[in-house]
Write a structure and sequence with these properties.
The chain is α/β, with parallel strands linked by helices. It is about 30% helix and about 20% strand. It binds S-adenosylmethionine (SAM). S-adenosylmethionine binds near residues 382 and 383.
């Protein structure tokens, strides 16, 4: 009974999820113990199983360890930092300070299949970048050492130089688990855009094929990042980067709205505004002899010879039909060409597909200026121009979508979301993740400080401009990656339920020292699968502080001196589930049993942490 009542404080169990997914598709391969019968799976797949020894694909040293990095659950939590946030109580935007691998794991339960658009701009591996070294068994420990949370001074990582024997492998080992977890967060109609340059473009394309499936590759945008450089120190001046686009499975692009500038209705046509379009196609008369003829205006009898190098777009019969429907405009001068009336109402779509050629969406010099304007200086060298990110947002994200950037840098993605919302009245939400990478600066000691400050300043500017009259979400909640609030979740301890429950019995106080009730509350939310942006109300119930989640669906009471009347008063509010702190029962098993019974009577799920 006791173990069942424990709230599962693990981040999402990825292999378990995948197994369930497989069993949903192939129920016939389920064995008695809920495992997978591989032989039956092979049978079910018939000829689709590739038994050959040699296979096409990307391989590198460390690839199998990446799987362990993906599968090892996070031992961490995200601690709220309201003092660094804006409108903490109402906003749904998030800035998470921490390593993105841990953050992506912690976000799995709450955000699986919820994100519409991901933009990332990871280190390009130019030879000077630091590439975060994951250690699958102690990944949180690595982070705690890096950030100096272990009591010692923060440990620095050196850059990945191209003389390193595992130069590309290190980068792939860093990227693979992150892309894998990011994919799970995407909605089925979601899309990920990844900025990259020539250093890792080949590896990235193959890696994405591996993670997302080759069929989900949408395109690779070529972004012009600077006007041609006269100081090219190599054989060519590389003036572009790429943004590759990959869908989860069925993304539909919003496209680029068509310009309707040239449309008018000078002849009062009942079909509305039109524009004149070409009536010829570029093909020789030998190829389409049926489309090479003199076109006669039946109203005037005037004859218009075909262009000797082209043919009409239609054969005679179709052309006659168009003329009968008054869709062909004949000029007075037979030396000029007849044209087709293209009606705006009859356009198949109001949008054009987005071009992969990006030469008008901002250069790197503009991003430098954008940071100058915000900070009066340039605290970060690698930001992208706002217009580039806005362009990607426009073609992919609707008004209420969630946007994620887990290599946030200076926070351009948040800036673009806030700007675009102001521009089109949308209500897109952002989630940023940024490592507190040291900067050697005193004003902003880490890059995460720059991220937060940029977004604060952007919000202030937008509010100063319009007083936020439309009441848009111009805030963000800051969370910081740290060890779990509960000591049994130390990585060093056996994680089996028996071992844990023993651990809990031994340590009546198992909450890590110095942690607040809010810290615990957000770990409960995260690990119960609630989004971190969920509204939380603080109530007083029979003298106890109770957190009411999402209008009372879940009630959380972290009081350390529970009594039966207080438990009953909480139960009487009829939530779907209640969570109490184990310490709240102070070892009084009878009280705990009664609390559980009271919940059972009202069909309420009872959990302790
Ligand atoms: C090229 S920058 C992104 C710039 C951003 N697009 C902008 O416009 O400002 C890459 C960022 O990823 C961050 N980063 C690298 N490894 C990370 C990790 N493991 N977790 C979170 N952030 C990381 C770096 O600190 C750096 O700020």
């Amino acid at each position: 009974m006791y173990n069942n009542d424990k709230l599962n404080l693990q981040s999402l169990n990825i292999p378990e999820e995948k197994r369930e997914e497989l069993l949903r598709i192939f129920p016939e391969v389920r064995t008695e113990g809920g495992q997978i019968d591989f032989d039956r799976l092979r049978l079910a797949l018939g000829d689709m199983v590739d038994t050959g020894k040699e296979r096409y694909g990307l391989n590198w040293p460390g690839k199998s360890a990446c799987f362990k990095a993906i599968q090892t659950p996070s031992m961490g939590t995200l601690l709220p930092a309201p003092e660094e946030s804006i409108n903490f109580d109402t906003t749904e935007n998030l800035i998470i300070e921490g390593d993105n691998l841990e953050a992506l794991k912690l976000l799995q339960k709450s955000y699986i299949g919820k994100v519409k658009m991901i933009y990332i701009d990871p280190p390009y591996n130019t030879g000077n970048d630091f590439i975060y070294p994951d250690n699958f068994s102690e990944s949180l420990q690595t982070y705690l050492e890096y950030t100096g949370q272990t009591g010692e001074e923060g440990k620095r990582f050196s850059s990945n130089t191209d003389t390193d024997g595992r130069f590309h492998s290190k980068w792939l080992n860093m990227m693979y688990p992150r892309l894998y977890l990011a994919r799970d967060l995407l909605r089925d109609d979601g899309v990920i855009f990844i900025s990259i340059d020539d250093n890792e473009m080949p590896s990235l394309r193959l890696l994405c094929d591996y993670v997302f499936g080759e069929e989900n590759f949408i395109g690779s945008f070529v972004w012009r990042r600077r006007a041609s450089s006269a100081l090219a120190d190599r054989l060519v001046s590389t003036d572009h980067e790429y943004v590759i686009a990959i869908q989860k499975s069925n993304f539909i692009s919003r496209g680029i709205p068509k310009e309707f500038g040239g449309y008018s209705n000078p002849d009062n046509d009942f079909r509305g505004e039109w524009i004149s379009g070409d009536l010829t196609v570029g093909m020789g008369k030998n190829l389409r002899p049926n489309q090479f003829y003199d076109l006669i205006n039946p109203a005037t009898g005037k004859s218009y010879p075909p262009n000797p190098n082209r043919v009409w777009a239609y054969i005679r019969e179709s052309m006659d039909k168009l003329i009968a429907e008054d869709r062909v405009i004949f000029p007075d001068d037979v030396g000029r060409r007849p044209m087709l009336k293209r009606f705006r109402n009859e356009l198949k779509s109001d949008v054009n597909p987005a071009s992969t050629w990006l030469d008008t969406v901002g250069l790197n010099t503009e991003s430098t200026k954008e940071l100058q304007d915000i900070f009066g200086q340039n605290p970060f060298d690698y930001s992208k121009p706002l217009t580039l990110i806005k362009h990607l947002l426009k073609i992919s994200a609707d008004a209420k979508d969630i946007i994620l950037d887990f290599f946030a840098g200076s926070g351009t993605t948040a800036h673009a979301v806030l700007d675009l919302n102001k521009q089109d009245g949308g209500n897109r939400k952002f989630i940023l993740v940024q490592l507190p990478e040291p900067t050697d600066r005193t004003d902003y000691p880490t890059i995460a400080d720059i991220t937060k400050e940029r977004v604060r300043r952007v919000i202030k500017k937008l509010n100063d401009e319009d007083g936020n009259e439309k009441n848009q979400d111009r805030g963000f909640r800051v969370f910081k990656l740290a060890e779990s609030n509960f000591t049994p979740w130390d990585g060093s301890i056996d994680q089996s339920p028996e071992a844990l429950s023993k651990q809990i019995e031994m340590h009546i106080e198992h909450v890590r020292q110095g942690r607040t009730d809010e810290d615990i509350l957000y770990e409960i939310l995260l690990k119960s699968g609630f989004p971190l942006s969920i509204p939380v109300e603080t109530l007083q119930v029979d003298g106890k502080t109770v957190y009411s989640i999402h209008d009372g669906i879940m009630l959380v009471c972290l009081d350390r001196n529970l009594t039966m009347p207080s438990v009953q008063a909480i139960v009487d509010r009829l939530p779907e589930r209640v969570v109490f702190l184990d310490e709240g029962f102070a070892g009084n098993d009878a009280l705990k049993v009664n609390a559980k019974e009271a919940c059972k009577l009202k069909n309420i799920v009872f959990k302790v942490v």
